[in-house]
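Hello, quick one for you while I still have it in my head. My current little project is about how a certain protein chain folds up. You're getting the sequence in one-letter code plus the fold written as C-alpha cells. Would you mind checking whether the C-alpha cells look sensible for this chain? Here's the protein in full, and shout if anything looks odd to you:
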Amino acid sequence: PFLKLTRALPLNPAKPMSTRTLIKIVQNGDPLVIFPEGRITVTGGLMKVYDGAAMVADKTGSMVVPIRIEGLEKSPFSRLTAQHVRRRLFPKVKVTILPPVRLKVADELKGRKRRAAAGAAL
C-alpha cells in the first residue's frame, strides 16, 4: 500500500536495459533509491548484488550512500519462516548510514568488463 504514495519503479534485475530508465531519472536530478540485491532475502543473509545499480552510479557520476538495515527479518511481516528466524512484535532495528562515496572504475574499461568492475566496486 505504501508504493502508491511514491513513484516506485519495480524493475527486473535480470534485464540490463531497464537501467536506462533509472539513468534518465538520475540525470534529471531526481534522487533514487535502489536495492541492489533485487529481491527479498530467503535465508536472512545478503543476497547476490546485481551490477545494475553500480552501472547507474557509474554512468551518471552520482554519489552512492550505502545504507544497511538490520533486524527487520524478525518482524511479523518478514517472509522468512520460523525455522530461519524467531519473530518478535517489536524487533530491534538498526539502520547504519555510511558516508557518500563515488564509485571508482578505470576509464579504459568498456562494456562487460566495466559493468563487472562497477559491480565489484559497489
